[in-house]
């Protein structure tokens, strides 16, 4: 198909060619031993436009660990179960501390700053564990529906590897439980959360999955309503302000798009009413965001004039 995304194909190719320039400037995530073994020198980018067109460069069909990007989809799913009541238990402001900070949980007395820091995502996971009979299976089905790809699954080795080192998340869940903000068993919730993070998607799948967020919650191909009216705008607002953790301000300045990153090295970004973009390159900066991915989005947004501002 030669649609809107294809017009960007030459720029995407240039960006992919340029990516090796950033290799060696960051470090692959080491908190998950299995991810530490990933080849750091990889790059992929995919753009999916509302007309159904997709353009890519690099290894755009290679699946990677989506990690914290799962938090966007688990949030959408939790909101479909509990609606706005979720916000009694989780805030909507940037946390100003690292995504796995325990100090924040104490300062906030168990009401996490937002759903994209780990404690917030644990509360979200609690909602799913409480309402879905098989939450991990339900979550994968939800991703598949958004991305329209039956290939998406969980990398159980990555999940097991993370669980062997997830002391901080177990501690956060215990603290949240102590504050009365988890209904289920804290260990079971960390287990489910870790498996959500271990979902694997390619750049093409991730860009497609985010497309409804660029289209007022509707599947652009069928018009099917995947999110109720108004919700995609709110999710985008949260991604813009909290999606890149402590780098959200810098990202808004340099890129100007709602986005969410994960320590697997991917970033997904939304251009409302136009397209969704995903990038993947495993080396991360100190704040946990992909170095080459951040730079790629900065260039794409600048040259294709995509900033929401
Ligand atoms: N699973 C990771 C964790 O809980 C996700 C972190 C991330 O991608 N920022 O630490």
From TrEMBL:
The keyword Acetylation applies. Its EC number is 3.5.1.2. It comes from the Bacteria. This is Glutaminase. Homotetramer. It comes from Amorphus orientalis. Substrate binds at residues 68, 118, 162, 169, 193, 245, 263. Keywords: Acetylation, Hydrolase. Signal peptide: none annotated. Belongs to the glutaminase family. Transmembrane segments: none annotated. GO terms for biological process: glutamate biosynthetic process; L-glutamine catabolic process. It catalyses: L-glutamine + H2O = L-glutamate + NH4(+). The keyword Hydrolase applies. It holds the Pfam family Glutaminase. SUPFAM superfamilies: beta-lactamase/transpeptidase-like. GO terms for molecular function: glutaminase activity. It is an enzyme of class 3 (hydrolase).
């Amino acid at each position: 198909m030669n649609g809107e995304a294809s017009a960007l194909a030459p720029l995407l190719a240039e960006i992919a060619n340029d990516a090796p320039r950033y290799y060696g400037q960051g470090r692959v995530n080491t908190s998950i031993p299995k991810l530490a073994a990933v080849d750091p020198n990889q790059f992929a980018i995919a753009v999916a436009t509302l007309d159904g067109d997709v353009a890519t460069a690099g290894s755009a069909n290679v699946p990677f660990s989506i990690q914290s990007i799962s938090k966007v989809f688990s949030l959408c799913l939790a909101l479909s179960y509990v609606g706005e009541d979720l916000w009694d238990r989780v805030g909507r402001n940037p946390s100003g501390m690292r995504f796995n900070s325990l100090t924040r949980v104490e300062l906030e007395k168990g009401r996490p700053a937002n759903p994209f820091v780990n404690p917030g995502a644990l509360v979200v996971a609690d909602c799913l564990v409480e309402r879905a009979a098989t939450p991990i299976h339900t979550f994968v089905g939800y991703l598949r529906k958004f991305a329209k790809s039956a290939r998406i699954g969980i990398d159980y080795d990555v999940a097991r590897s993370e669980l062997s080192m997830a002391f901080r998340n177990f501690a956060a869940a215990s603290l949240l439980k102590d504050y009365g903000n988890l209904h289920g068993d804290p260990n079971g919730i960390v287990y489910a959360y870790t498996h959500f993070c271990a979902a694997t998607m390619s750049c093409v799948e991730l860009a497609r999955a985010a497309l409804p967020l660029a289209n007022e919650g509707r599947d652009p191909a069928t018009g099917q309503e995947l999110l109720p009216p108004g919700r995609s705008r709110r999710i985008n607002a949260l991604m813009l302000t909290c999606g890149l953790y402590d780098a959200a301000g810098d990202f808004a300045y340099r890129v100007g798009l709602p986005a969410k990153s994960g320590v697997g090295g991917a970033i997904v970004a939304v251009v409302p009413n136009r397209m969704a973009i995903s990038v993947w390159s495993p080396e991360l900066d100190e704040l946990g965001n992909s170095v080459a991915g951040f730079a790629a989005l900065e260039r794409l947004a600048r040259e294709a004039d995509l900033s929401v501002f």
